[in-house]
C-alpha cells in the first residue's frame, strides 16, 4: 500500500519514508546468494577431499579448493547474518510507519487532537531512528568481525596490484642505478659507500613490499640482502684499514718525534756537557751558572721543537692519491684504497720502527677481504640481472630455469583473501 503524500499539518513530507517490501526483496536476494555460495562450498569441499581427483596436480587443486571453500564459507556467513538483521529492520520500519500513519489518521479525523497526533508522530520517528541505529550497528559489527573485511594491508596490496606495472619498472631502474653507483664509485670521487648503501637499501625495501604483495620474487629480495650484507662485511674491512692507518701514523709520528729529539740532543751534546761542567764547578760565579742553566734550557727547547716538528710532519703528511685500479683492488672503496696505500707508504718510510710494522700488519688481508666481498656482491647482482627477465626491456633474453626458480618464490603474504 502506497504511503500518503500529504502529511499536513504534522509534517512537510513523509516522516518515516522507506519500503519494507523493497528491504524484504533484498533479503530474499541475499538469501538466494547465500544458498548458492553454500552449494559451491559443498562442491569445493568434495574436491578438497580428493573425491574423483587423480594426477600430479591433484594436491595443488585440493589445497586451493580447501582454501577457497573457507573463504566462500565466510562470504555466505556474511550474507546470512546481514540478511537476518535487514529482515528485522524491515519489521521495525513497518511498525514505525504504521504508528506514523496512525498519528496522521488521528489528526485527519479530529483536528482538535493535533498536539496528541504530533506527539504520536514524534514517538514513531524516534522509534524508527532508534531501531535504524540498532540494526546498522549490528550489521557493521558483523562486517567488521568477519574475515572478509579489508585490512590496511589489503588496501595497500590493491593499490600495488593496480600499479604493479610501472612500479616494477621504477624499481628495476633504481636497482640498475644502485649497481651503477657501486661501479662508478671506483672512478668518480664523491660517490661514497654511504650513497651506494642508501640506494641499495631503498631498492631492498621496495622489493620487500612488492614481494609481500605477491608482485615480486623473494629470490630478488634474497639477492639484495646478500649484496647489502657483503657491503656490511666490506665496511668492517674498511674500518679495520682506517684503524690501521691511524695506528701506523701514530706510531710513525711517535718514532719520528723521539728520533728527531735524540738527533738534536746528540748535535748539541758538547754544548750541553760544557754547561753541565760549569754548573758543577764550585768556583764558577753566579752569572756563569745562570748562563749555563739558560744554555741547557735552550738546548732542551731546541730538542723538543725538533721532535714536535718531526711529529707534525708525519701527522700532516698529505694522503696519497689512488688510481681506479687501486680502488678496485681495495674492493671499490676509495677510502679503503687510500688507507691501505697510506699504511704501505708509512711502513716503507718507517720500516725500522717495530711499532709501525706491528700497526700495519693485516692491511693486505683486510684490503683483499674487501675486494672479495665487493666482487661477490657485484657479481651476484650483475649475474641476477643478466640471467633474469626484465620489466623494462621486455624482449631481453633470459635463462628460463633461473626465471622459473625466481617465480617459485613469488608468494603473496598478509592478505585475508
Can you give a write-up of this model?
The structure is a single chain. This protein is mostly helical. The chain has helices spanning 20-48, 58-109, 114-145, 152-184, 193-212, 218-267, 269-280, 286-315, 324-329, 334-349, 354-360, 363-387, 400-408. The chain is elongated, with a radius of gyration of 44 Å. It starts with 19 loop residues before the first helix and ends in a 9-residue tail after the last helix. 25% of the residues are buried. Mean pLDDT is 84; it is low at 53-58.
> In angstroms, what is the radius of gyration?
44 Å
Number of helices: 13
Mean pLDDT: 84
Low-confidence stretches: 53-58
Structural class: mainly alpha
Taken as a percent bin, the fraction of beta residues is under 5%
- Sheet bearing the most strands, described? none
- The first-to-last residue Cα distance is 44 Å
The number of strands is: 0
In sequence order, what are the helices and strands, one letter per element?
HHHHHHHHHHHHH
Oligomer: single chain
What's the shape?
Answer: elongated
| Helix percentage range | over 70%
Descriptive keywords:
mainly alpha, 417 residues
How are the SSEs ordered, and which strands pair?
Layout: H1 20-48, H2 58-109, H3 114-145, H4 152-184, H5 193-212, H6 218-267, H7 269-280, H8 286-315, H9 324-329, H10 334-349, H11 354-360, H12 363-387, H13 400-408
Helix pairs in contact: 1-2, 2-3, 4-5, 5-6, 6-8, 6-10, 6-11, 6-12, 7-8, 10-12
Amino acid at each position: 500500500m502506497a504511503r500518503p503524500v500529504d502529511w499536513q499539518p504534522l509534517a512537510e513530507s513523509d516522516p518515516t519514508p522507506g519500503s519494507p517490501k523493497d528491504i524484504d526483496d533484498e533479503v530474499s536476494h541475499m538469501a538466494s546468494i547465500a544458498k548458492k555460495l553454500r552449494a559451491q562450498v559443498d562442491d569445493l569441499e568434495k574436491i578438497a577431499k580428493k573425491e574423483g581427483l587423480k594426477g600430479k596436480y591433484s594436491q595443488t587443486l585440493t589445497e586451493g579448493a580447501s582454501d577457497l571453500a573457507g573463504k566462500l564459507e565466510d562470504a555466505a556467513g556474511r550474507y546470512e547474518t546481514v540478511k537476518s538483521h535487514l529482515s528485522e529492520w524491515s519489521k521495525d520500519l513497518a511498525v514505525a510507519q504504521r504508528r506514523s500513519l496512525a498519528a496522521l489518521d488521528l489528526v485527519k479525523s479530529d483536528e482538535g487532537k493535533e498536539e496528541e497526533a504530533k506527539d504520536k508522530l514524534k514517538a514513531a520517528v524516534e522509534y524508527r531512528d532508534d531501531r535504524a541505529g540498532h540494526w546498522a550497528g549490528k550489521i557493521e559489527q558483523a562486517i567488521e568481525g568477519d574475515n572478509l573485511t579489508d585490512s590496511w594491508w589489503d588496501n595497500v596490496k590493491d593499490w600495488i596490484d593496480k600499479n604493479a606495472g610501472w612500479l616494477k619498472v621504477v624499481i628495476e631502474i633504481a636497482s640498475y642505478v644502485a649497481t651503477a653507483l657501486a661501479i662508478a664509485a671506483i672512478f668518480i670521487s664523491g660517490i661514497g659507500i654511504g650513497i651506494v648503501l642508501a640506494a641499495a637499501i631503498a631498492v631492498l625495501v621496495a622489493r620487500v613490499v612488492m614481494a609481500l604483495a605477491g608482485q615480486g620474487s623473494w629470490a630478488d629480495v634474497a639477492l639484495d640482502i646478500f649484496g647489502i650484507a657483503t657491503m656490511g662485511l666490506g665496511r668492517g674491512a674498511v674500518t679495520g684499514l682506517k684503524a690501521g692507518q691511524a695506528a701506523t701514523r701514530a706510531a710513525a709520528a711517535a718514532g719520528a718525534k723521539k728520533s728527531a729529539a735524540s738527533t738534536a740532543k746528540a748535535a748539541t751534546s758538547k754544548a750541553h756537557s760544557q754547561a753541565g761542567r760549569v754548573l758543577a764547578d764550585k768556583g764558577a760565579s753566579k752569572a756563569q751558572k745562570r748562563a749555563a742553566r739558560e744554555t741547557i734550557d735552550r738546548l732542551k727547547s731546541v730538542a723538543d721543537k725538533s721532535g714536535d716538528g718531526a711529529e707534525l710532519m708525519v701527522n700532516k703528511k698529505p694522503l696519497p692519491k689512488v688510481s681506479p685500479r687501486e680502488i678496485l683492488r681495495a674492493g671499490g672503496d676509495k677510502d679503503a684504497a687510500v688507507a691501505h696505500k697510506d699504511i704501505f707508504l708509512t711502513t716503507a718510510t718507517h720500516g725500522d720502527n717495530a711499532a709501525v710494522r706491528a700497526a700495519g700488519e693485516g692491511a693486505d688481508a683486510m684490503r683483499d677481504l674487501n675486494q672479495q666481498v665487493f666482487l661477490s656482491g657485484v657479481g651476484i647482482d650483475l649475474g641476477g640481472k643478466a640471467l633474469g627477465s626484465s620489466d623494462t626491456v621486455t624482449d631481453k633474453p633470459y635463462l628460463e630455469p633461473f626465471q622459473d626458480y625466481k617465480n617459485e618464490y613469488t608468494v603473496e603474504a598478509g592478505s585475508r583473501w
